[in-house]
Amino acid sequence: MATTWTRRHIISLADFVSSEYDTVLQTAASFGEVLSRRMKKVPTLQGQVVANLFFEPSTRTRSSFELAAKRLSADTLNFAPGSSSLTKGETILDTAKTYLAMGTDLMVIRHREAGVPQAIATEMDRLGSRVGVLNAGDGQHEHPSQGLLDLFTICSLLDRDRPRLELLQGKKIAIVGDILHSRVARSNIWSLTAATGAELHLAGPPTLLPQLFADMGVGRAGQLSLHWTVEEALENADFVMTLRLQKERMSQHLLPSLREYHQHYGITRDRLKLCNPNVKLLHPGPVNRGVEISSDLMDDPQFSLISQQVTSGVAVRMALLYLMGGGKVQ
Ligand code: NCD
To answer: Is 183 annotated as a binding-site member?
Structure first.
C-alpha cells in the first residue's frame, strides 16, 4: 500500500488534513481485513518496541493499543504508575527517557493533565531521537485515536470497503452530553467538521457546553452548531454520539442531579423518534447506564455501534502505529 505519512507524533487532530484522514481510514480498512483472517498477526513492526505509558486508568484504550501493537508483532512494554518509580519521585520526563534508553520506538501516552504527551514529544525531538509519541488522552485536551476510530466506525458503515472523509457530506451528526470535560468531544469536533458538507451539532446543558466551543467551527470545511436543548440537535440526525458525564472532573456543581440530566438530555427511545429512522448511536465508553443513554438502547444492535467502535479501535490503532512506525501492511 502506497502511503505518504510525514507526521512523527499524533498529539491532536486540530491540524489534520483531509489526505491524512483518508490515509488513516484506508489503512485501518486494510488492517480490518487482516483482523478478519484466521491468522490475525502481521510482521509489520517486528523488532520495534511500543511502550504504553498510561499514567491514568483505562480499560479499552490501553488494551486496544496493546492488542494493536501485538497484532503488528511489536514488542510491548506496559507501565503502571502505581507500581513504578513515579512513586519514588521520578519525573514523567525521566520515566520517558528511561523507556527511550531501552530502545522504545513508539510511546503511547495517557495522562490526566493536558499537554503531557506534547511535552514528552518535544523532549524526544530535543534529544534527537526518532521516537514517535501518540496521545492516548490528555486531560480535557484531546484523544485523537478515539476521534479517528469514531470516524472510521461511521465511514465504514457508509462504505465498508472504501471508508473516506467525503462520505460525511450531507450527514447530520450530533454529540450530546458533557462536552466541556471531554477530550473525546474535542477530537471528534475536529474530525467530524473536516469534510465539506458535514453537519456537526453539539448539545448539552449550558454549564457543560459553553458558547466558546462555537469558535472551534471557524474556518472548518463542515458546519458546527451548538444547542442547549437536545431535541434540536437530534432532529433528522444520522448519527448520535453520547458522552459520559465525567463526575470525577466536575469540580463545581454543574448539574442539578443525574436523574434530571437524563430527563433533559438522556438518549431514550422516545427521543430517537426525532432522528433519521436509520440513526446509529455511538458512545466512547465507559457508559453510565441510564444516565446519558437508556440502558436497553445501548445494547440494541439495531441502533448501537458501541461494540463496533471497540472492534474498530484495534484496526485504527494498528493503522496509526503502522503509519508512525513506517512499516508495510502484509
Ligand atoms: C474516554 C476517555 O478516557 O477519554 N474513554 C475512552 O478512552 N474510550 C471517555 C471517558 O473517560 O469518558
So the answer is: yes
- Ligand 1 contact, 29 CB (< 6 A): no
Is 219 annotated as belonging to a binding site? no
Cα Rg of the chain (Å, integer): 19
The alpha carbon of 183 and the centre of ligand 1 are apart by a number of angstroms equal to 8
Q: Looking at the structure, do residues 86 and 13 belong to the same domain, yes or no? A: yes
117 closest CA partner among 145, 93, 94, 98: 93
Residues 99 and 200: their CA atoms lie apart, in Å, by 40
Residue 26's pLDDT band (cuts 50, 70, 90):
very high
Check pocket membership of 266 for ligand 1, CB cut-off 6 A. Answer: no
All three cell numbers of 82, joined, read: 502505581
Residue 1 lies in a domain: no
Spacing, Cα 187 to ligand 1 middle (Å):
12
160 and 251 share one domain: yes
In the block, cell 454543574 appears at: 254
Beta-strand ranges (E) seen in the chain are 49-54, 75-79, 106-111, 132-138, 172-176, 199-203, 223-227, 239-242, 280-282
Q: 5 exposed, middle or buried (CB, 10 Å; 0-12, 13-18, 19+)?
A: middle
Residue pLDDT, tens place only, 46-67: 999 999 999 998 889 999 999 9
Q: Which domain holds residue 99?
A: 9-142+312-325
| 126 contact partners, CB below 8 Å, separation of at least 6 | none
Q: How much is the pTM?
A: 0.95
Task: Dump strand ranges (E) for 100-177.
Answer: 106-111, 132-138, 172-176
